[in-house]
Amino acid sequence: MGIIVDENTRVIVQGITGRQGRFHTELMLKYGTKIVAGVTPGKGGQSVHGVPVYDTITEAMEKSPADTSIVFVPAPFALDAVSEAILAGVKNVVVITEHVPVHDAIKMIALAKLKGARIIGPNTPGIITPGKCKVGIMPGSVFTPGNIGIVSRSGTLTYEIALNLTNAGLGQSTCIGIGGDPVVGLSFLDILELFREDEQTKAVVIIGEIGGDAEERAAEYIERTNYPKPVVAFIAGRSAPPGKRMGHAGAII
């Protein structure tokens, strides 16, 4: 089964005509993801890799309904893009964009909660249910179907650990990056709850980083709820050196 995305997921790409949007649309299509539309204001009527492009996500949802969108727009416009997607009825919004202002992230997450939608990110590599659907920028070749769920704050560490699991004969149910920014949508706790209910997932890998208390909250949740599945956690780094800027914004709070 996996969580959030599967072979029936229908995806809209916001910012599809940009360099990154165009590039990753092709890779997602090759993986088998059902991309039904793209959105770039002023570019309606075009197509990218056979995907029709619309001026607004409202129009895209009317012509090609979808349950998920992936956002490749520049940071100053991310709030508008995410808000438009949620108000148009999209239930899962994957925000690849990095450097989203904190106040913008707070606003989009509040709107998502109000409308019953999910936000993955910002600053996320996305989500993949191996062999079924990839909504993100991760290299699909390192993942293989199986029963290990992965939730991570780091993109590249996710790829490395997924590859090691694959090489060890341990496939994955779903792998999701929650994002490395100070304020993100779905948290470790949210994903752990989804994995708890997923019949395919038999064990969970948490990949954390120094900074913040997300990992401590996850540990407390696992203990408090007597989590029914084995959990293995890896936290990269021991401490943040004084005066040293860390790679992810989440590591400084």
TrEMBL record:
Catalytic site: 248
The protein's name in its UniProt record: Succinate--CoA ligase [ADP-forming] subunit alpha
GO biological process: tricarboxylic acid cycle
GO molecular function: nucleotide binding; succinate-CoA ligase (ADP-forming) activity; succinate-CoA ligase (GDP-forming) activity
First-tier enzyme category under EC: ligase
Pathway(s) the chain acts in: Carbohydrate metabolism; tricarboxylic acid cycle; succinate from succinyl-CoA (ligase route): step 1/1
Family indicated by similarity: Belongs to the succinate/malate CoA ligase alpha subunit family.
Reactions catalysed: succinate + ATP + CoA = succinyl-CoA + ADP + phosphate
Assigned keywords, A-Z: Ligase, Nucleotide-binding, Tricarboxylic acid cycle
Described function: Succinyl-CoA synthetase functions in the citric acid cycle (TCA), coupling the hydrolysis of succinyl-CoA to the synthesis of either ATP or GTP and thus represents the only step of substrate-level phosphorylation in the TCA. The alpha subunit of the enzyme binds the substrates coenzyme A and phosphate, while succinate binding and nucleotide specificity is provided by the beta subunit.
InterPro entries for the chain: Cit_synth/succinyl-CoA_lig_AS (IPR017440), Citrt_syn/SCS-alpha_CS (IPR033847), CoA-bd (IPR003781), CoA_lig_alpha (IPR005810), NAD(P)-bd_dom_sf (IPR036291), SUCC_ACL_C (IPR005811), Succinyl-CoA_synth-like (IPR016102)
A Pfam family reported for this protein in Swiss-Prot or TrEMBL: CoA_binding
Binding partners and assembly: Heterotetramer of two alpha and two beta subunits.
Provenance organism: Thermoproteota archaeon
Record-listed E.C. numbers: 6.2.1.5
Segments forming domain CoA-binding: 4-100
GO cellular component, one term: succinate-CoA ligase complex (ADP-forming)
